User: What shape does this take?
Amino acid sequence: GHVAAMLPADPPRSLKSLAFNGPDGKPMTIADHSGRTLLVNLWATWCAPCVKEMPSLDRLQAEFTKDRFLIVPLSIDGPSKPRVAPFYRDQKLDQLGIYFDKGRKTMQGLDVTLLPTSILVDAHGRELCRIEGDADWDMPESIALMEAAIGKTRR
Assistant: This one.
């Protein structure tokens, strides 16, 4: 997939109250990341396009400091949740944190019906655009899109 396929949110809607579980298992919201541009990616270990996309998301995160830009890969793995950490190790995903969408509440709140779906969120917690299906996140145009959203250059 190509990031040019991203669909703009018109108008941008606030996602500040969107809740999910962080890497430590504790609940958090988009508002907890205020001041950062986020790329929220809904995915699962059993989703082939998701698995294909994860290494490029990891490489994209490596291009930016996490204080300005953070990828939030939200796993919807429910019963298969124990597979996520070994999947990260096997795929050498060392730039990405592990986040969970418990009970798929975030997925439903975002009206996501296709995996993977990625949503670009500005530093004020508003959805800018989204793309359904996998994308090549480490391509120059993907990096340029993130730079434009952040308003600052890479590391």
Remarks:
- DSSP finds four helices and eight strands in the chain.
- The longest helix spans residues 48-62.
